Amino acid sequence: MLEKALTGTKKYYGWIAALLAVIGVGFACYLWQFQFGLGITGMSRDVSWGFYIAQFTFLVGVAASAVMVVLPYYLHNYKAFGRITILGEFLAVASVTMCILFIFVDLGQPIRVVNVLLHPTPNSILFWDMIVLNGYLLLNIVIGWKVLEAERNNVAPAGWLKPLIYLSIPWAVSIHTVTAYLYCGLPGRGFWLTAILAPRFLSSAFAAGPALLILLCMIVRKLTKFDPGKEQIQSLAKVVAYAISVNVFFFLCEVFVVFYSNIPEHVDHLKYLFVGLHGHGVLVPWMWASMIFMVVSIILLVNPVTRKNETVLVVACIAVFIGTWIDKGLGLISGGFVPNPLHHVNEYVPTLPEVLIGLGIWAIGFLVLTALFKIAVTIKEEVAGLA
Amino acid sequence: MKSSRRRFLKIAGISALGLGAKPVLDVMASSSETAAPKTAKGENVLTAKRWALVIDTRKLQSEEDLDPMIEICDKIHNVPKFENKNHEIKWLWAEEFKHEFPMQEPDFLNDRLKHMSFLTLCNHCEKAPCVRVCPTKATFKREDGIVLMDFHRCIGCRFCMAACPYGSRSFNFRDPRPFIKETNPDFPTRTKGVVEKCNFCAERLAVGKLPACVEASNGALTFGDLDDPESEVRAVLRSNYTIRRKPALGTGPSVFYIV
Ligand code: SF4
Ligand code: SF4
Q: Measured between beta carbons, which residues in chain B are less than 8 angstroms from residue A340?
């Protein structure tokens, strides 16, 4: 089936070439970082994680959200999603690939990465994160591939796949939970030290992932003869509507606890993000933009009239994606590290090479996604006799 | 042989640094031949159940009083000096009360404490969060309570830096070697991409010497075994009111401040 990714229209090749160019630039910057050290980034002693780890965290969410199409189909027998589960699973594969790459480029000594396996340390959450992420990647590759193969050959998927599919459901939840545990178990980091962090992660994930999937479905419909379906897109839109609402609700819970209790170690981080602290506040406009995006998207998605209008839906999904991306991809990490444990305010802004390396990884993700979607869609077209 | 370097660091009384090399080399030689790990102690090694440091801030009025200690620490441990603040490496440094003890600052702190500088360093926590989170055991706790780093195992994930609630850790954002004024050949220099911090002068304890800062403190710093009721630190703690940094976090710092 792999060969299906190798043939395509001129446009397809053009897109691939563009991605490869971005990857090339990112890779060149990575070589520079590899040679010089992480000093080419904007990170510091005080903000010791930055853009990379933030992208990783955001993408774990996108990966986990595959469960939002798998679960209704396999557990509730919601037939309509049968058409698009494969797209959800392949999106997960691409996302986890990016996650692993983002962790890798963040390491100070990347060639020593095997030390995590050579000296397994179960008390470290990073150890578990490695296990759940790689496990999830494997599960989705196997499930996606085998189910697609069965579809192509017009047979029912092999029986042994069922337990794997069921396993992939709690596993999806686990990847984002464990990722939240990386942060929320650390003493002295008031911004992260909250039991609602994992639920917040999951809710924003189940909004961002399906929103992206809706956009991808629409692109697929435009570019190919395979139609993921109106009903499917509308059902996904409802998932996004609830998830983004719950996400904002969870955030407001956090805001209440932080400000009503008025404990400075918790208050100061939120203040830094939303109004600035001691005259520092690079993220203030971003955070408010994120809030506005989320609130506007709720209005557009909850209201059935606007949700059913596909043009408006596109706008809403883009708003959800950007809003949650700012929240996790920018605010979460900086917000946790500023102010630092000694209460100094040292801000973080990513550098150009850092952003280019990040873009390179996103491009790799999109390359994987493009290839996998191409395969899936071509087979769907064949099966439907459209090709 | 795989774990020999670790054992090497762990063995109380053996410096990882080639000081007192004779017994060390003997152990290394024999451990590569025989299966059973052997440990050996140097002749003058200072041992304890739990090392602790008491800082009498009454005897350290100004930043100048701290300088000799900071200087000697930086010097013997090959701590580099960077212009770029983002790349800074710190083992022992000075902070004001409000930063040293954030959220512990009384509203009307007396003038002396308000404006003086406090020595800041790794607390060698009893329940160290940095040890808990390290995915490779590159950060580990020795039997004598010292939290140490294996610079050769660290993958540079910086999880430990996020976990330390005291900002005690630094990361080598670039090769530090060109930025070391005068390299001390008896202590390892670090490579880019690994984390480092104060080591309670484990290499000096191994050869019977007190930590360099203690030695340079003119009696303002007391170092000893917290577990031994007869020790000097315990005597000082008995007769003075001391505070520790962020006690509410349950980390159990081994550094005490007489204020
Ligand atoms: S002060 Fe920080 S680095 Fe030192 S032992 Fe405690 S947690 Fe670890
Ligand atoms: S940076 Fe090194 S010492 Fe710190 S947690 Fe990672 S591997 Fe352990």
A: 167
Own/partner long-range contacts of A306-311 (Cβ < 8 Å, ≥24 apart): A307/A234, A307/A237, A307/A238, A307/A241, A308/A234, A310/A218, A310/A233
Residue B117: which residues within 8 A CB-CB, separation 6 or more? B60, B62, B63, B66, B94, B95, B96
Count of the separate structural domains present in chain A = 1
Please, which residues 190-249 of chain B have a Cβ atom closer than 8 Å to chain A? 191-195, 246, 249
Å between A368 CA and nearest CA of chain B: 26
What per-residue confidence (pLDDT) applies to B36?
Answer: 55
- A137-195, pLDDT tens digit by residue? 999 999 999 999 998 998 988 899 999 999 999 999 999 999 999 999 999 999 999 99
Interval between CA A194 and ligand 2 midpoint (Å): 24
Half-sphere exposure at residue A139, Cβ-oriented, CA atoms within 13 angstroms: 27
Range of the domain at A325: 191-200+238-340
CATH number, domain B51-258, options 3.40.50.10160, 3.30.70.20, 2.40.160.10, 2.60.40.10: 3.30.70.20
Q: How far apart are the first and last CA of chain B?
A: 48
A257 is a domain residue: yes
With CA atoms as reference, the chain A residue closest to B247 would be A188
Token reading at B121: 């360093």
CA pair distance B154, A282, nearest whole angstrom:
32
Cβ-nearest to A107 among B98, B157, B165 = B157
Which residue type is seen at B108? F
Residue B29 CB neighbours (<10 A): 9
- What predicted TM-score, i.e. pTM, was given to this entire model? 0.91
pLDDT at B85: 94
pLDDT at A312 over 90: yes
Is A107 within the bounds of a domain?
Answer: no
Give DSSP secondary structure letters for chain B. -TTHHHHHHHSTT--TTSTTHHHHHHHHHHHHHSSS------SS----SSEEEEEEGGG--SHHHHHHHHHHHHHHTT----SSGGG---SSEEEEHHHHSTT---TT--HHHHH-EEEE-----TT-HHHHH-SSS-EEE-TTS-EEE-TTT-----HHHHH-TT---EE-SS--GGG-SS--TTSPPPPTT-EE---TTHHHHTTT---HHHHTTTTSEEEEETT-TTSHHHHHHHHS-EE-SSGGG----SEEEE-
Instruction: Give the pLDDT confidence score for residue B12 in this predicted structure.
Output: 42
Selected residue of A40, A48, A268 to mutate for chain B interface (largest B Cβ count, 10 A): A48
Residues 6+ apart with CB under 8 A from B211: B53, B200, B201, B204, B205, B221, B223
Strands B51-56 and B255-258, bridge-based pairing: parallel
Residue A324 inside a domain? The answer is yes
Contacts of residue B61, Cβ cutoff 8 Å, sequence gap at least 6: B112, B116
For residues B140 and B148, is the Cβ–Cβ distance under 8 A?
A: yes
- For residue B97 and ligand 2, the question of a CB distance below 6 A is answered with no
| Neighboring chain A residues of B102 at a CB cutoff of 8 Å | 265, 341-343
Which ligand does the CA of B159 lie closest to?
2
Measured from the Cα of B137, ligand 2's closest atom is: 8
pLDDT at residue number B38: 62
With a 6 A CB cut-off, is B162 part of the ligand 2 pocket?
A: no
Whether A214 is in a domain gets the answer no
